[in-house]
Design the sequence.
């Protein structure tokens, strides 16, 4: 079970607004998160991953407290190890596709499988600048999966994929998520694209 | 033709660059992460040699490390170390004087990297050190090279600071720039010309090398 109860001030064009989220997600659930721009969807994911601090909140993942501002508990991102797919991919320009995965894990069999899932075997020795937008996005997803995370946070993870690649990848990912027992939170601007993958939804205002 | 001043200059520039690389990297990294009043103050102090007359910096270093006063006296009594009119003093002055040339380009390059690169690495369980070595450093290579070469080249050309703290002791503190000045004072234009040409050639080759390397990296050489 993932339990999130947070409150964070957001800088907005018209002064400040508050992001409040109080939700529980069953282990292994796949949730789509949507809402208007600037509502704090990305901030929510970054807060869960431990990239941003907040004034008040509590995050418990599988009975481990990641954050509790009252008790002054705040696990570092390295301890949380939530898989994170960034909206800008955040690929490492100096690393090839293979190096990205090897940087994340030593499990060669898993790396081989991930390359197959992302259809990136022919590009294993390519650096990000020589990949298309869709290939870069797939690599970002594979890198996040490489650590076999218990919680995966995805920020607009399919925005650069064509419909054919998207549905093939989503089908593969669904199997992987089930296998790993991974809970997934997916931020999207297009909730319909995730029909068939997600089993829950959260709207942020 | 005595080439000792050239040898001393190259030795001074090499040691200064190495010391600044080792100390400047962590400082630049630290300065690139967030802002605070203390960081702004430190950055201002590091930048001072860029705008301060070298003789002023040299004068204060001379006072500070003189065996008759403060730190210099303490160093002399405690460790039997004397910085004034010694090669060690030249290294110390050069490190302070060339510091902005090493730290500035590295700090700027680190600041220009998207913060999501570090975050992605942290989310994979990697420490700050691993992230710095495996992700950040390889992606600022052109700026790192620029910083190294600028520091080396700038140290080759130092005059005011080294003259103030080191004087003009042949074989000890008489570096090439001082030897040029000394030769001109003695109307020995031939020797001054040889030293000047050697310094000019070394500096030119270094700067050209940086421009060529950075062109292949598709980056501005001054980034």
Sequence:
């Amino acid at each position: 079970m993932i339990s999130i109860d947070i409150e964070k001030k957001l800088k907005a064009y018209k002064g400040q607004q508050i992001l409040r989220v109080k939700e529980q997600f069953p282990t292994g659930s796949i949730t789509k998160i949507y809402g208007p721009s600037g509502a704090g969807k990305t901030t929510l994911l970054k807060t869960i991953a431990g990239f941003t601090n907040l004034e008040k909140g509590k995050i418990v993942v599988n009975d481990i407290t990641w954050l509790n501002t009252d008790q002054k508990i705040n696990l570092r991102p390295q301890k949380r190890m939530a898989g994170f797919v960034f909206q800008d991919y955040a690929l490492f320009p100096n690393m090839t596709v293979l190096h990205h995965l090897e940087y994340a894990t030593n499990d060669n069999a898993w790396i081989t499988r991930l390359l197959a899932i992302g259809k990136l075997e022919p590009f294993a020795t390519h650096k990000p600048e020589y990949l298309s937008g869709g290939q870069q996005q797939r690599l970002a997803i594979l890198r996040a999966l490489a650590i076999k995370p218990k919680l995966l946070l995805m920020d607009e993870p399919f925005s650069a994929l064509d419909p054919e690649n998207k549905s093939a990848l989503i089908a593969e990912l669904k199997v992987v998520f089930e296998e790993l027992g991974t809970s997934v939170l997916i931020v999207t601007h297009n909730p319909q694209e995730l029909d068939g993958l997600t089993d829950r939804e959260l709207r942020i205002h | 033709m005595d080439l000792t001043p050239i040898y001393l200059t190259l030795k001074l520039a090499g040691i200064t660059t190495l010391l600044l690389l080792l100390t400047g990297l962590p400082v630049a990294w630290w300065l690139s992460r967030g802002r605070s009043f203390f960081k702004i103050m430190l950055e201002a102090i590091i930048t001072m040699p860029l705008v301060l007359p070298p003789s002023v910096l040299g004068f204060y270093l001379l006072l500070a490390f003189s065996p008759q006063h403060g730190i210099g006296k303490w160093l002399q009594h405690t460790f039997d170390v004397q910085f004034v009119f010694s090669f060690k003093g030249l290294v110390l002055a050069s490190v302070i004087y060339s510091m902005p040339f090493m730290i500035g380009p590295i700090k700027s390059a680190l600041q220009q990297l998207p913060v999501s690169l570090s975050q992605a690495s942290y989310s994979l369980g990697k420490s700050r050190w691993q992230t710095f070595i495996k992700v950040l450093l390889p992606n600022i290579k052109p700026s790192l090279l620029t910083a190294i070469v600028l520091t080396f080249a700038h140290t080759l050309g130092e005059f005011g600071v080294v003259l103030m703290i080191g004087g003009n002791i042949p074989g000890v503190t008489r570096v090439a720039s001082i030897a040029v000045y000394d030769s001109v004072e003695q109307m020995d234009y031939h020797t001054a010309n040889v030293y000047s040409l050697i310094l000019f050639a070394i500096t030119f080759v270094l700067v050209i090398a940086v421009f060529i390397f950075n062109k292949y990296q598709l980056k501005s050489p001054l980034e």
Remarks:
- The first strand of chain A starts at residue 2 and ends at 11.
- The interface with chain B takes residues 46, 49-51, 76-78, 80-84, 86, 88, 90-94, 103-104, 143-144, 146-147 of chain A (CB under 8 Å).
- The mean pLDDT of chain A is 92.
